[in-house]
Amino acid sequence: MGSYLSVNDADRKVMLERLGVSSVMDLYRDVPQDLILDKPLGLPEGKAEMQVGRVMKELAGENRVYGTVFRGAGAYRHYIPAIVDQVAAKETFLTAYTPYQAEISQGVLQSIFEYQTMICELTGMEVSNASVYDGATAAAEAAAMCRDRKKKTVIVSETVNPEVLAVMKTYSWASDNEIVTVPAKDGVTDMDKLLSAAGADTAAVYVQSPNYYGCIEDLEAAAKIAHDAGAKLIAGVQPIAQAILKTPYECGADIAVGEGQPLGLPLSYGGPYLGFMACTKEMMRKLPGRIVGKTADEKGNAAYVLTLQAREQHIRREKASSNICSNEALCALRAAVYMAAMGREGIWEAARQCVSKAHYLQGKLAEAGFERKYSGEFFHEFVTSCPYDTNEVMKVLSDNDILGGLVLDGGEILWCATEMNTKEEIDRMVSLLKEVF
Amino acid sequence: MKLIFEKSRPGTGNQYIPACDTAVYELDASFLREQEAALPEISENDLSRHYSELERRAYGVNNGFYPLGSCTMKYNPKINEAAAALEGFADIHPLQPEDTVRGCRKVLELTEKYLCEITGMDAMTLAPAAGAHGEFTGMMLIRKYHEMRGDSKRNKVIVPDSSHGTNPATGTMNGMQVVSIPSTEDGYVDLEKLREAVNDETAGLMLTNPNTLGLFDKNICEITKIVHEAGGLCYYDGANMNPIMGIVRPGDMGFDCIHLNLHKTFSTPHGGGGPGAGAVGCKEFLAGYLPYDNEITENSCGKVRSFHGSFLVIVKALAYILSLGKEGIPESASMAVLNANYFKALLSEKYTMANEGFCMHEFVMTLEKEQKEYGFSALDIAKGLLDNGIHPPTMYFPLIVHEALMAEPTETESRQTLEEAARIFLDVYDEAMRDPQSMQQKPEKTVVGRPDEVLAARKPVLRWQEEEAEDEV
After folding, report:
1. Is residue A27 within 8 Å of residue B330, measured between CB atoms?
2. How do A68-69 and A402-403 pair as beta strands?
3. Which of A46, A285, B74, B448 has the fewest CB atoms within 10 Å, measured from its CB?
4. What is the pLDDT of residues A334-390, one digit of tens each?
5. Which B residues, 46 through 65, put their C-beta within 8 Å of a C-beta on chain A?
6. B63 → chain A, closest CA residue
């Protein structure tokens, strides 16, 4: 049995004697005795580390790791520099708690301050928090930031990731607020419909760009519609794309949110991921979660602290803007190391390769009869028709160690390419499709 | 120490990805940002040293004693990390076909099953990303339950004044009105006040047990009975589950749903603030309202997070449960209680305890008298501990105890560590009694002194900017 206790029988005896009891169960005096379990839990017996390692390896072995991946839809495979894993495994970063005691937590606090700066740089926004759970909860929290007694409705474009929409709906239902969706037109938000949906009760408009179908949205138009209605624009963005695309700030967004997983986090069957949130200075005091600020100690040394805590649940209790306490600090650290390692040029290059390879893939697929469905410009994802049975197509690809694009409800396929996909892989897949079908 | 941006020098970064092997596609300029993001450019050696330096300026469980109350800072086993790093978990896309993720599904199913057994619940979701997220999810089940019965009047949630701040904040996120009830003088739920508070508007009660004073509420069954008889449901905040796992089960105490903090009780690391994972369990009659995973289910309260939760955190928790097994889990729980009581006994020599008698996993000291009579505070003691290489207890919580210090040693500390730490606690106390004034200068041995928090909040500097660096030059 694995045991991580540090007390042996002799110690235990000394400790019990000091407390004047004969058994540790004597310490459970307040527990109604009829509630105490009279038989062991229905769990397996404890295992030695070697056995645990084997069981976990067997479980992992029952999953299929694909050599080639053309699937994104909210989770993206990018190259992760080796140093990212090394830094994130440093024991102190791994085992520290939230940096409440600033004097011995300057390392964690500074790393968050640096992360906040990098997120501001990518999004162009003025203020970032220290992270929330994932991109979907970031969008839901952003919606809550915009609402007040009079403005309770948030308009969401149907082109956003369906996982994000689902989570926004849940949060909205729980707090007695409204989500209204506007449909897509040719793979992007129908701006005419958005215009007619926006009104006096609109708190915010949420648009994602590049959207779920990969298309780049006209965020500036969305911002104008939102602002004309007295509402805020929440932009959902992709962090790698942000290295080259116009920033949400340039487009007039009030809040930028997104899934930070592409910044050095493995796919991990969906988590833990990283929700990033950044906003204008004007909205700073509504931003949920931890925020690190720079200040000084008595001697004037630069010092970092958790700040603006008057927003948070441990101070404001039922009046807090959110109940969030734990965040995704270690994932934010990974993202910061990733951004610093790749650097200004590296991320720019990764983004450009995403665009180039996705466009190459799209051209090749069109040659094989997979026609692109929408006409607007895209970043690294796009939707095609499927001239053959989608199950058959996916099976053929899977048999050849390729995870194909995601089959959408209408039978179309959502493809993705990143810097990880080589020209050879793309050519091989497309010739396979041509050969088989 | 310098920020990474101040170490940036153009042209020094490593190359991580090869040149593009397809034709380069240029997006139209109208899509592009005007200025590149000012991310650092730094050699890998300098980057590595930067984070090593940051690590030296931080403090983790690996560095020393960390008795931060309510946070369960137990040792984080290494096999858990090794398991989560396996390619067969880390490199799996969340939207892979079901027949290619059988191992992941088994991890989720086994963990759900084991946690149901440990809590005495019938169903479990692993979707929530943290404890507070679990509270949000659990209270949604209660909301949904009343809604499905057409009982729309029930929008009040009862929360004891000793609770974590997340409880009342969760009530608000669920559109409920929060009714705070006072605790008795010795820290338990005041049954009379509870009886007065419940009525036909009561949605439910949120209760942390053992509570934030480290006490197991001996009236626990009476409490759930009072709430149930008024038509409300009972939510168990399992943040303090560590001392009772394998000993008693919330499901047997009459609770209808519960959240667990896998990053506290089930040994997954806190990571400087996260990621955590917050499993939510419930009784059968609420199971249909749990969040859905892949397929929408008819009465589900919805999705609370994308995909399948904090999967790799769940992998670590499963490895821990497998290691301890049915004998190890209660043994760890009771050791947490023994360590807390032993530590409490050692500190009682000088420190005043908020409650006499035995505690569960944690206990609360009060420096109220010292603050009034001698002029040193709980904060001063905490800062004095920093100079001695100990992470202080949680300060000023729970709110019902003045000048509180809340200590939770956990089961993974040795008797020797507790005795050594107690000696330091007592020395710091003596020092404060001798020279209360000097305590305000503490800590003196850390890389910075007490930061000016008022300045930080009044003039927020929340990111690095180039101008500022120039000013400093």
Report:
1. no
2. parallel
3. A285
4. 999 999 999 999 999 999 999 999 999 999 999 999 999 999 999 999 999 999 999
5. 47-48, 50-63
6. A92
Q: Check residue A316 and give its pLDDT.
A: 84
Which positions in chain B touch A149 (Cβ < 8 Å)?
A: none
Q: Which of A318, A347, A416 to mutate to test the interface with B (most CBs of B within 10 A)?
A: A318
Q: What pLDDT score was predicted for residue A345?
A: 96
Residue B62 lies in a domain: no
For residue A319, what pLDDT is reported? 84
Chain A residues touching B337 at Cβ < 8 A: 24, 27-28
Kindly state whether residue B230 falls inside one of the protein's structural domains.
yes
Determine the Cα–Cα distance for residues A305 and A104; give it in Å rounded to an integer: 11
What residues contact residue B20 under an 8 Å CB cut-off, 6+ apart? A349, A352, A353, A356, A357, A419
**Does a structural domain hold residue B68?**
no
Residues in chain A, how many?
437
Query: Which of B321, B353, B384 delimits the end of a domain?
Result: B321
Structurally, chain B folds into a number of domains equal to 3
* A44: preceding bond cis by omega (within 30 degrees): no
Contact A173 B301 (CB under 8 A): yes
Q: What is the pLDDT of residues B271-282, one digit of tens each?
A: 999 999 999 999
Q: Does the pLDDT value for residue B467 go beyond 80? A: no
Return d(Cα A371, Cα A365) in angstroms, integer. Answer: 7
Average pLDDT for chain B: 96
Cβ pair B175:A174 closer than 8 A: yes
Domains in chain A with CATH codes: 9-57 (no CATH), 68-78+344-436 (3.90.1150.10), 82-336 (3.40.640.10)
Whether the pLDDT of residue B162 is over 90: the answer is no
Structural domain range at position B97: 78-321
Structural domain contains residue B119:
yes
pLDDT of A317 reads 86
Q: Identify the closest residue of chain B to A399 by CA–CA distance.
A: B100
Confidence of residue B470 (pLDDT cuts 50, 70, 90): very low
pTM of the model: 0.97
Does B338 lie in the same domain as B282? no
